[in-house]
Every structure is written in C-alpha cells, then in structure tokens.
Amino acid sequence: MIVRIDDVMCNSGAFTQERAENRFKTIHSWIPYEIVHMPTILVKDIQEYPNIIEFIKEESHQKLRMFPEIHGYEHIDYSVLSETEISEHLKLCIDWFKDVLKLTPAIWAPPWGNVGSLAMQDASRKLGLRIQGVEKTVPPKVALEILKIHPTANLTVLAHWWEKGHAIKRICKIVEAGSYDKASELDKENLF
Ligand SMILES: [Zn+2]
Q1: Interval 85-97: pLDDT, tens
Q2: Which of 55, 145, 147, 155 has its CA 20 to 30 A from that of 1?
Q3: What class, spelled out in words, does domain 2-186 have in CATH?
Q4: How many whole angstroms from 114 Cα to the centroid of ligand 1?
Q5: CA of 109 to the centre of ligand 1 (A)
Q6: How far is ligand 1, taken at its centre, from the CA of residue 171, in Å?
Q7: Could you tell me the distance, in angstroms and rounded to a whole number, from the CA of residue 98 to the centre of ligand 1?
Q8: Residue 64 clears pLDDT 90, i.e. is over it
Q9: Ligand 1: centre distance to CA 142 (Å)
Q10: From the CA of 92, how far away is ligand 1's center (Å)?
C-alpha cells in the first residue's frame, strides 16, 4: 500500500511556515512501516522549507521511511508546454533530487493528474521517469471503505499535505492493526 502525498510543499499562504511544516511531519508520523509514504515534491516551492528538505533527506535516507518523487518544478499545467520546456523543468527536478536528496527519482506525478500531452510523455520517458496520473489512485474516503472489507488491499491512496488528513490517519491505524474492527477496538482517540 502506498500513500501518495501531493503538493509538497506548495503554500497558498493559508498556513504559517511552522504550521505547514508540522502538518507534513504529522502525516508522516502516522504512516507505519507497512505503508510506503510517497511525497511528490514541487522543487521550486520546497526551497522555502529548508527544515522539510532536511526532514525528507533523513527519513528517505537513513530511516528508509519515505520515497519522494517529482510533482513538478512548479504547480503548473505541463500539458500546454513544449517538450523542451517540460524537459528543462524535469531536469531541474532530477538535478535537485540528486544533488540535495542524493536520490534518483523514478516517477513524475504531474499536477492535477494531467498526463494528457504527448510532449509530457516523451519528455519523461527520455529522462527515465515513469509518468503517474491519478487513475490508479483512490481518495482516502474510498480507501477507507475498501479497507473495511479488504484490510490488506494494495491501494495507492492520494492525499495532500494541506488536507486535515483524518481519513489518512484512520487508514494508517487500520493497516497497523490489521483490520478495521481491531483498529476501532484499539482506538483511544475516537477516530472510529
Ligand atoms: Zn498538485
């Protein structure tokens, strides 16, 4: 099971720096070893969050608790750009991943799940990135319904760091406990 957290770390100004950082770190703290945490990064935007960059480095490297991938250089509609422009953005992302995170990204999950243009597909293929849309992902509330019946379902759940994340928290508890019933039995926070 994968929890993909998009938009790391865009900021609409709705959060202070500290609250934004705490929200991302809190979501990560819920995710047990059984779940792969895949934050998708906006490489330009995350520069405003040096603490989060350090945090991701540590969690993905030393602890192997995180598998960051690319959301974009910026949160823009890449389907209207030329292949050259897209490649420039993706190269900036790949270089930053290699230089700063010391990781080679494998996936590009573009903003809004928009994977429609041929230029996007060509650019990502030539740079060795697999493009991932949203078709095979499920929103947290749908994942919860599936996990009630199939607690070991292999899902890719898609959420965003700026969402409250209560459903993600419940998903993590179910996977950790092994079943919905067990999770609600163990629940001390009135999540269920
Ligand atoms: Zn996004």
Answers
A1: 999 999 999 999 9
A2: 55
A3: alpha beta
A4: 10
A5: 9
A6: 21
A7: 22
A8: no
A9: 19
A10: 18
CB 46 within 8 Å of CB 5: no
Tokens of 162: 């700026």
Q: Where are the domains of the chain?
A: 2-186
Helices and strands, counts by H and E, the chain: 7, 7
Distance 71 CA to ligand 1 centre (A): 7
Contact between residue 112 and residue 124 where contact means Cβ atoms under 8 Å apart: no
Token reading at 123: 């650019």
Q: What angle do CA 86, 88, 89 make, to 5 degrees?
A: 65
Residue-wise pLDDT tens digits, 18-59: 999 999 999 999 999 999 999 999 999 999 999 999 999 999
Side-chain half-sphere exposure of 156, counting CA atoms within 13 A: 12
What is the whole-number distance in angstroms between the Cα of residue 124 and the centre of ligand 1? 17
pTM as predicted: 0.96
Q: How far is the CA of 183 from the centre of ligand 1 (A)?
A: 30
- Paired sense of beta strands 130-131 and 137-138, if any: unpaired
123-163 pLDDT, tens per residue? 999 999 999 999 999 999 999 999 999 999 999 999 999 99
Distance in Å, CA 101 to ligand 1 centroid? 21
Q: 112 CA distance to ligand 1 centroid (A)?
A: 5
Cα–Cα dist 116/80, whole Å? 10
Given a cut of 80, whether residue 63 has pLDDT beyond it is: no
